[in-house]
Amino acid sequence: MTINTCYTVLGAGHGGKAMAAHLSLMGFNVTLWNRTFSHIEVIKKRGGIEVESPEGGPHGFAKIALVTSDMEEALKDAEMIMVVLPSSAHADVAKAAAPHLREGQIVVLHPGRTCGALEFDKVIRDNGCTADITLAEAETFIYASRTDGPAQARIFRIKEAVPLAALPAIRTGNVLQKINQAYPQFIDGGNVLNTGMNNMGAIFHPALTLLNAGWIEATHGDYQFYIDGVTPSVARVLEVLDRERVTVASALGLRARTALEWLEMAYNTTGVDLHEAIQNQPGYYGIKAPSTLAHRYIFEDVPMSMVPIASLGQRFGVSVRGMDSIIRLACIAHRTDYWKRGRTVDKLGIGDLSVSELTRYVNEGVRE
After folding, report:
1. 115-151 pLDDT per residue, tens
2. Is the pTM of this model over 0.90?
3. For labelling, which of 5, 42, 90, 133 has a CA lying 20 to 30 Å from the CA of 341?
4. How are strands ordered across the β-sheet holding 106-109?
5. Residue 283 clears pLDDT 80, i.e. is over it
6. In what order do the strands lie in the sheet with 48-52?
7. Pairing of strands 162-167, 134-138
8. What sign results for the dihedral spanned by CA atoms 256, 82, 301, 13?
């Protein structure tokens, strides 16, 4: 029996297909949008997605009510809009969606990375959207999933608790009330600064990839990314980056989890330092490194995760020399100016706000 709430999932990659299919299996009316129609053509022809999961998870044929590459068509009847795309695509999707968003719709970024909701909000307003929508972001993606074929999805795991925050935070309760009908796993994440500053990928992914650049290119990623790649010296670099992130959060009046606290919370793994804790994490054994440096661990996580944290640090007087070093190494390796491409405070339109003004903006929606 179909539940009345209409969901639109923007993005038909690994995560988007998993989410669209699972929502359908739960009884919701689902629209799936993708910019390139050829990527969803088979789903449209078959009328849905075949889902597999281990150990009794979501499985079966999931009917998708509408499959389209037309943004206007995709958003027309949507109540909940789930953006399941790399954060590097958020601005483009916001620009495309801006003319078609309407009063009362809820847009959730899965995940926002760092300052995703702030960027999305600025882009839709800059592109003429005046509708009173509610924008929110998740701290991480709820699924571990992959694509087995053009109309197939495999869901390995669904996280048990995922923090979520609305912009402004006074609307978080409304978003949770709606989204918890499908996903009781989403919990109150404070505000969008809080969800963004707890982005652990910003610390682990870029530095670990760049500091092992030679090994990645020589072996095409044929080694264990965390177990072999996190040597004591590499771990010390990660610890410095993590301290900078926590200090930036503190400057914003936030208490961010340290990497050690996160490892204990997520995996029940401990150690005297980050090197030992990572080596003690059984889930990291067997995870291979990226096969190339042309990977989202750099081209997404540097501009969309590390740059906004470092930019906030610079704005509020926190030393972020470690982060700046990794960002500049990424610029050199990719021959790209990630400071220019990234989510800086000026690009986000918050460069002129004090800490108290920024806090009031993300909590109450008041812009002074």
Report:
1. 999 999 999 999 999 999 999 999 999 998 988 899 9
2. yes
3. 133
4. 66-68, 28-33, 3-10, 80-83, 106-109, 134-138, 162-167, 186-188
5. yes
6. 60-63, 48-52, 152-158, 143-149
7. antiparallel
8. positive
Give CATH superfamily name and number for 3-196: NAD(P)-binding Rossmann-like Domain (3.40.50.720)
The residues assigned a catalytic role are: 205, 301
> What are the phi and psi torsion angles at 254 (to 5°)?
-115, 155
Please give the DSSP secondary-structure letter assigned to residue 303. I
Q: Which 3 state secondary structure label does DSSP give 171?
A: helix
| 233 C-beta neighbours (distance < 10 Å), count | 9
* Residue with the two structure tokens 């919370």: 265
DSSP state of 168: S
Q: What are the tokens at 234?
A: 């590499």
CB neighbourhood size of 251 (10 A): 15
Domain with CATH 3.40.50.720 in the chain: 3-196
Q: What is the CATH number of domain 198-364?
A: 1.10.1040.10
Q: Where are the alpha helices (DSSP H) in the chain?
A: 14-25, 41-46, 71-75, 90-97, 116-126, 172-179, 192-197, 201-210, 213-219, 232-251, 259-267, 274-279, 296-299, 301, 307-315, 321-334, 338-341, 345-348, 355-364
Give the residue among 283, 140, 312, 290 at the shortest CA–CA distance from 210: 290
